Input
Amino acid sequence: MEKMWAGRFQKTLDKTADDFNSSLRFDKRMYAQDIQGSMAHATMLAAQGILPQAEVDTIIDGLQGIWEDIDAGKLSFDDGAEDIHMFIEAELTKRIGDAGKRLHTARSRNDQVALDIRLYLRDATGAIIDGVKEVIKAVVAQAEENADVIAPAYTHLQRAQPISFGHQLMAYAMMLLRDISRMQDAVKRMNLSPLGSCALAGTTYNTNRALVAEKLGFDGVTKNSIDGVSDRDFCVELLSAFSILMMHLSRFSEEIILWSSWEFKFIELDDSYTTGSSIMPQKKNPDMAELIRGKTGRVYGDLMALLTTLKGLPLAYNKDMQEDKESIFDAIDTVGMCLRVLAPMVATMKVLKENTYKAAQKGFINATDLADYLTKKGMPFRAAYKIVGQIVAECIEKGNVLDDFPLESYQKYSELFAQDLYEEIALETCVNKRNSEGGASPKSVREQIKYVQQCLK
Output
């Protein structure tokens, strides 16, 4: 395929250099957005009298035909094309003649590619957000089913306090809601049309950038033509949001891995989302969760790669900026795949309620409630804290837990202890009384669920 810019050159591009320069292998996924942008641009050219309406009608019909043929698999991409933009323009010219050559009036590939990537990322981010919502729905359904299930919560991976297992799950729902908000914010800043910036200085034609922006669903246009073609902040911002999302998915996956181990055995994953061993027949491995955890590093790498690419670039467009697409496309594919696996894995996992309760009975996780018991009877918290620490030490020495430590032994430490302490430190009481907003009680968990469901609407 002859290069669109071949007029200036006396020699053809070296084959290796041509392959190195080409971006078609990864930017061809933007064909629909490229055609959408070209249709809007052509419509504007006719509206402004820059091209005749009849010619623009021919251009739009030709573009529609190319779009339909690619969708149907009737048109294959030409590996000799430099990029998706040149491929579509060359195919259009082949089909409709010289009218196809006029489509590029009053635009450059610089503003064309800046437009296409914004359109593509806007669509792709919408799909990622939908995927996050599916994970949230699965988490909420499990939280609702396990709102009354008692389990230990951890700090430093040591048993800390008794909670509802649903409460632990809802923590991830809150994280994922913030991820959606971050992506939506990124799209707001991205949703400005750069088309009309041309190579970097704008154009001498009487164009109507606002018309193109409106037809493509943008909120407005970029205000500086140099920035319009050189800005890739929106790619970095999305990659940052994706990285934070993956960090949350990785933390959740880590807990799923721990919970499904024999050491915890709080959950059992469905066979559809686990694998076995080639040599150990007893194994049931949480490979999907491990892969999500592992792929988090890949998305972090995409973010760092793009930040590094952009950090020293002078204005305006540089070929280095072609590297934005491989990073952001890889992140979109990776995040999307992780979400599609995680949602059904969470939805089908089984919570082993007896095991979570037994774990909560160990580790003196009702010690804070015992200190609160003394505080409510008038003892300063720090004094109560010290006494309970001494009681825990004696229990460990004698093989007791707080629930079966004799009342007379309690009363050696304080006369404030009475028979009612056992009710106060029962696991069910400890959890049910944590009704402060956002707390661990089943009632609070159900309020959290209502909040998240409302946010999803």
The chain is about 60% helix and 5% strand. The longest strand covers residues 158-164. Residues 236 and 304 are 9 Å apart (CA to CA). The radius of gyration is 30 Å.
